[in-house]
Amino acid sequence: MSVGKGGALRAGRPSKARKETATLSSLADKGATVRVNFDLERKVHVRLKVRAAQQGRTVADIMRDLVSEFLSR
Fold first, then answer.
1. In CATH, what is the architecture of 36-73?
2. Contact by Cβ (8 Å): 10, 4
3. pTM, whole model, 2 decimals?
4. What is the largest CA-CA distance in the chain?
5. Residue range 46-58: average pLDDT?
6. Which pLDDT value is given to residue 40?
7. For residue 20, what pLDDT is reported?
8. Angstrom distance (rounded) from CA 73 to CA 66
9. How many CB atoms lie within 10 A of CB 11?
10. What is the Cα–Cα distance from 41 to 33, expressed in whole angstroms?
11. Nearest CA to 60 among 34, 41, 42?
12. Percent of the chain with pLDDT strictly greater than 90
């Protein structure tokens, strides 16, 4: 919690208060994006996360690559 206007306590997102620092990915010229959510069985999700970690990648990176590959067929 932090102190808001008038000295009242307020809840908020701690990450929102941080200033954005430029990263290589934030400097990349990317188009607009949308968030995609879907359900996976827990055991499949665990296997996916393990494989991603073994490759030093994120689940999101793998999913984006898989979607691109699917669409290029």
1. Orthogonal Bundle (1.10)
2. yes
3. 0.57
4. 59
5. 97
6. 97
7. 66
8. 11
9. 7
10. 25
11. 34
12. 55
